[in-house]
Amino acid sequence: MAIRTELSLRLQNSPGALTQVSGILADEHVNIVALALESNGTLRLVIDNHVHAAGELRARHYDVQERDVLYIVMPNAPGSLARVGRLLAEAGVNLDYAYATAVEGGAMAAVVVGVPDAQRASAAAGV
Q: Same CATH topology for 2-67 and 68-125?
């Protein structure tokens, strides 16, 4: 488990909006580790160099917000998410949102969890 900085920004509902952002990051050699795009246009990104990426996106007039989130790597197996969720719930941590990915048949999965206080949540849950 790690605490990572998530970038969030609003995309227009138009063809190529996500491609434009991912192209900017690719041109700057920034790797996207996780992403979620909501129906209201909010794009959430966990990337390998948030400082550089945020600066480049802001230079191109994107309104970028930064937030600490939990980035939890776990076995890609039945019950793994439930175990982590139980730890957080028992520590009294409320989840604002979560998104995850795994390669089918792969050994590991990754979950990004937005919580009110990532430092406290990480310490309290021991994740």
A: yes
pTM (2 d.p.) = 0.91
CATH C-level class of 2-67:
alpha beta
Q: What is the pLDDT of residues 19-69, one digit of tens each?
A: 999 999 999 999 999 999 999 999 999 999 999 999 999 999 999 999 999
Alpha-carbon gap, residue 1 to 15, rounded angstroms:
35
Query: Which residues contact residue 78 at a Cβ distance below 8 angstroms, ignoring those fewer than 6 apart?
Result: none
68-125: CATH architecture: 2-Layer Sandwich (3.30)
Residues 99, 34: contact at Cβ < 8 Å?
yes
Q: How would you list the strands of the sheet with 97-102, edge to edge?
A: 32-37, 42-47, 2-10, 65-75, 108-114, 97-102
